[in-house]
Design a protein that fits this description.
By secondary structure, this protein is of the alpha+beta class. It has one domain: VC0467-like (3-Layer(aba) Sandwich). 21% of the residues lie in helices and 27% in strands. The protein contains seven helices and nine strands.
Amino acid sequence: MRSEINLFNINHYMAKVGKGKCLISEPFSPDSYFGRSVVLITEHNEKDGTLGYIINKPIDVPIHELFPDFPPFNAACFMGGPVSPDTIHYLHTRPDLFPESTPVIKNIYWGGDFDLLKENIYNRTIQPNEIRFYIGYSGWAPDQLQQEIEDNFWIVSEISPKKIMNANTNTWKDLLNDLGDSYSLWANAPSNPGMN
């Protein structure tokens, strides 16, 4: 079905790939991880490749049930990607609590010390709406992502901090609609292209 999308002659390379940009997948991918996904890029360079997290596929299990040594905490948890699905990662808006965290874009930070994270949860110095957890991550070798973009699998776009911290199952469609009428066919396409 991807060849049909090419008939629309859409320029999928909307923005330059880089930290803080997002990848929006094409609508008909059967991939269980990346189908209708939005990936926030947290690291990108030509030598090491690209790393990011799927931000719009929530997991309906509290983080402390997935990782038993974690304190009870009612924060959003997502499937971050197919790589290392036994690991936990997080994005947050509190660099004051995590001095070793890495800035991604304005007001969004990545990672930090896990012992400090647990301490902040126990002390209630961080609130659930200030942090999001991801199980596993998404990664591409150098040049791999560029090839997927050229094959029309991804659109590269901007994303706001608010949309990152409020991402949900509707985010894929919302971001496509934000890109304008050219992408309305993608945004409104049925999951199964055989269904009209």
